[in-house]
Design brief:
It comes from Caenorhabditis briggsae. This protein is of the alpha/beta class. It has three helices and 13 strands. The chain folds into two domains: about 50 residues, no CATH class; about 150 residues, 24 nucleotide stem-loop, u2 snrnp hairpin iv. U2 a', Chain A, CATH 3.80.20. Helix 2 runs antiparallel to helix 3.
Length: about 210
């Protein structure tokens, strides 16, 4: 049961939803989370909880990567031996996308990924580190990133060319901004923000 659900915000001009101060066991069903997060009339959203693990009967939802999964609940970890067929149909991640020490050169394997939702303020929505072959940070269809973390998205110690990929940085930031006022964050690429990447590119003569 909700212990605190605020439907308006006296300091914000618009409709706000805040769910907080509940039991540690409290979670929101996947269907409920989708309604809250995608309801156009909600201008501000704060969800201090988590999305419930889908039951065995839930169609196209999973907590372990598998072929045909559309809604992934939990932290999706991509490593050196990951089977990328398992993310071909993936559209929504309710947790973090963590890519570390993989052989990826780009993110084309996430060909259908539309949205990443991570509302735990202590966790990154996207954490990409140590992928020495990764030369592009562009997601083909990613539209929205919900993050309560002040950074939200981190790229570090990947291929050196990512330090100059300001276009991908700006694209990711746009996806974060489209998540609404819940996000005040900016993606970081090796300690650089998007504008700093542009400046670094000019200073080094990169196009």
């Amino acid at each position: 049961m909700y212990k605190a659900a605020q439907l308006s915000n006296p300091w914000f001009n618009g409709t706000a939803v805040a769910i907080a101060h509940n039991s540690p066991q409290f979670c929101l069903a996947l269907r409920e989370a989708k309604i809250f997060l995608n309801y156009e009339k909600v201008s501000s959203f704060m969800f201090d909880s988590k999305v419930c693990k889908p039951g065995k009967q839930a169609k196209k939802a999973c907590i372990v990567p598998k072929v045909g999964c559309v809604n992934f609940v939990g932290n999706l970890r991509i490593g050196p031996k990951f089977n990328f067929k398992k993310v071909k149909n993936l559209k929504f991640i309710y947790g973090s996308l963590i890519v570390k020490n993989s052989s990826l050169t780009d993110f084309k394997v996430f060909e259908n990924l539309l949205e990443i939702v991570q509302l735990n303020s202590t966790k990154l929505a996207i954490d990409v580190q140590g992928n020495k072959n990764l030369q592009s940070a562009t997601f083909p269809k990613l539209k929205r990133i919900y993050s309560a973390n002040t950074v939200g998205v981190l790229f570090k110690n990947n291929h050196n060319s990512l330090k100059f990929d300001s276009k991908s940085c700006i694209s990711i930031r746009s996806a974060m901004l489209r998540a609404g006022p819940v996000c005040t964050c900016s993606p970081i690429f090796d300690d650089l923000k998007c504008e700093e990447m542009e400046q670094w590119k000019k200073q080094t003569g990169r196009k």
